[in-house]
Amino acid sequence: MTGVTEVVDASSSPRGRTRLRRSSGPAAPWPVLLAGPIAAIGGTAVTWVLFGIPPLLLWFTSTNTGAVADSVMGVAATVWLGAQGVPMVVDGVTITLVPWGLGALILLVLFAAGRWAARVAVIERRSTALGLAAVAAVTYALLAVGASALLDQSDQAPGRVLLTTFVVGGIGVGLGVLSYGGHLRTWLTHVAAPVRHVCAAGIVGFMVWVGAGAALVGIALLADSATLLDVGSGIDVAALIAAIVLAIGYLPVAVGWAISYGIGAGFVPVGGVTVGPFSTEVVPALPPLPLFSALPVSPPAGSAMLPVVGIIAGVLGAAVLRRRGLSGRSLLAAALGAVCVSALLLTIVLVASSGALGSNQLDAIGPNIIPAVGVACGLWAVGYLIVVLPTVWRGLAHEHVTERE
């Protein structure tokens, strides 16, 4: 399937010596209807291998009576679908809190599959690239529905599985296809400059909070590292494997909770109890899960100053707009748009960090979304105004002087 070029080097011997050099591209472009399904099949196979390794290790390291196909593949299918947003049902309990860390792994594999498909199909037009991504996404979704039915995942509705995996496959493979041929970069260059400015500033303001949330999770884990090591040393290998997988899967969720904590709105780890820098509620005993391992028992010293991060984020977002040459009323309008972009991204993250991890007290946990987004918008606005108002004022004063002259 790859082209081969024959090169003859006659200087090394009287008869000459033949060397083979493989060209980097395919001998002929693959049809979209072939490259798309193969990319989807390959991406599915790789993710299944990755998701099957932890259950297989659990099966070998624990007492079991079931067959490998039932024990390993069933668990792998449940977690694989759950990582893509399909509700997981474990022992009759529905879990809707998505382990996005594992979902990111799936997207990474599909992204690589999309780039491979774009390479072998030699995509030159954007419409063909979108068609290739659509074919791969449909194939991926059909494989997911087939695997769910084959492994008797009767708790998952086929329609939900089909729609969810189609979206995930479309995003992962689509980004890979568009990025390989430069189509994504070309599309971004055609976006109007004001829109790019607003999105850039909004992303900066949002990413400041993401960085702060990740830092808070890291600090909490370091502060409680001794307890975590004690717990880890006291459990068997099977439980340790499960804990590591859960920790990886729910790490982005923990960051989402930490963002809401830093904003000041806090989050709900158990029904009716809010953990936040200004909360005095007592947290009851929680399940021994990695997601709950580093929750602060009481607000740490200085935690009341965490919302200042939002003001800093607003200042940095406004600085992005100023560096791009905006001033006056256009700067004010762009700042308003950037706050909206940041709020949209924050809402997506907080909603993705909410759900159920069980029944009763764990059926609705996660960030306090509406208060968090509202407070964050206020903090961003203050930060933007610190930069925008003096600039607008100077611009108006200059216009007034010009009119008088």
Structural account:
The protein has 405 residues and is mainly α. It has 3 domains: 1-30, no CATH class; 32-189, no CATH class; 193-404, no CATH class. 65% of the residues lie in helices and 8% in strands. It has 13 helices and 7 strands. It has helices at residues 32-61, 68-82, 100-121, 126-150, 158-180, 183-189, 193-223, 225-233, 237-249, 251-263, 308-323, 328-352, 369-404, and strands at residues 2-9, 17-26, 88-90, 93-95, 267-270, 273-275, 366-367. It has a 3-stranded antiparallel sheet with strand order 6-5-7, with helices on one face. Strands 1-2 form a two-stranded antiparallel ribbon. The chain has a two-stranded antiparallel ribbon with strand order 3-4. A hairpin with a 2-residue loop joins strand 5 (267-270) and strand 6 (273-275). Helix 11 packs across helix 13 (369-404). The protein is flat and about 70 Å long. The model is unreliable at 1-26 (pLDDT under 50).
TL;DR?
With 405 residues, the protein is mainly α. It is 65% helix and 8% strand.
Mean pLDDT: 81
What portion of residues is helical?
Answer: 55-70%
Strand content: 5-15%
Number of strands: 7
Main sheet strand line-up:
6-5-7
Structural class: mainly alpha
Give the overall silhouette.
flat
How far is the N terminus from the C terminus?
A: 75 Å
- Rg is 26 Å
Low-confidence stretches: 1-26
How many structural domains? 3
Order of helices and strands: EEHHEEHHHHHHHHEEHHEH
Describe the biggest sheet? 3 strands, antiparallel
Tally of DSSP helical segments: 13
